[in-house]
Amino acid sequence: MLFRSSAATCGAVVAFAVSVTVARSEIEAVHSSAVVNDACGDAIVGAASMYNPFRPGSQEGGPNTASGERYDPSVWAAAIKTSLRQKFGGVQYGARPKYALVEAVGKKVIVKINDVGPLTPGRVIDLSEQTMRYFDPSLQLGVIHGVTVRPLSGDYWIPGPVG
């Protein structure tokens, strides 16, 4: 009897470990540039800045995004300029998220567009802290000029760097 319960416990632990490994590998999946380029819409070029309502001195918006999610500085997300809302499928409360490819300083990343806002003139996108750190690890630039943002068709994207 002891052997059966030990075997059952061992089996459960192995099954859990396998499921965690599979889930982790799905989260860390990286889309190829060719797949991403095929799904891209028209390019929008402008400047990008960072938005984090939890940082001291932040005067933009609040902690809840237009999609209804709470702002999380550790996710690959962004807010687009209000006038671009329809180009990104609406970005509405409770709706499925939309995605975009953001390119700057020789790097590419897929972000979830979960917010909109009246951004500072000349800026087309406000990046989450995680996303801004990808382009500017020290967060010293404040604004990144010459950023290209392209809407991605479909809703199967995994946010993060494009390899």
Automatic annotation (TrEMBL):
RlpA-like protein double-psi beta-barrel domain residues: 45-137
Species per Swiss-Prot/TrEMBL record: Bradyrhizobium septentrionale
Q: Which CDD domains match?
A: DPBB_RlpA-like
Listed name of the protein: Septal ring lytic transglycosylase RlpA family protein
Q: Pfam families from the entry?
A: DPBB_1
Q: Which domain of life is it from?
A: Bacteria
For this protein, the record's InterPro entries field holds:
RlpA-like_DPBB, RlpA-like_sf
